[in-house]
Amino acid sequence: MPFRALIKTHHMTSRKKIQAITKSAKHHSCSVLIKTGKPPGVMIAEGTEDAVKQWVETVKRLRYKDYRLLRLEAVTTGQLSTTPGNVTEFGSMKDLSAYLEECDVLSWWAEHMGFTKGGR
Fold first, then answer.
1. Which residues pair with 71 in a beta bridge?
2. How far apart, in Å, are the Cα atoms of 11 and each of 21, 67, 70, 73, 114?
3. What are residue 110's phi and psi, to 5 degrees?
4. Is 76 a residue whose pLDDT tops 50?
């Protein structure tokens, strides 16, 4: 069963931090989506439980402003179509949400980001 993490930060603009996220995704074989640029910064990782937890610890050590781990759980619905070990970067929430809709992960993301309540 896949394990997934959702992290929200103030913003993601540092290429050095994004490189560290990418390196950790490769090292832990996690599929990772990031939304960079203007606020908010969003990261979603999927993989085995141990891999995702280790990836989250790497991100936490980067000390992003307003870092919030919104979700860390086993999931049964949807699956990111990013290859494990790779990072897919989006420049807007619109592009990220369109991708998540294709992966059948949009409702999960919207609920845990606080955009909807309980699947409405």
1. 6
2. 14, 9, 15, 23, 17
3. -60, -40
4. yes
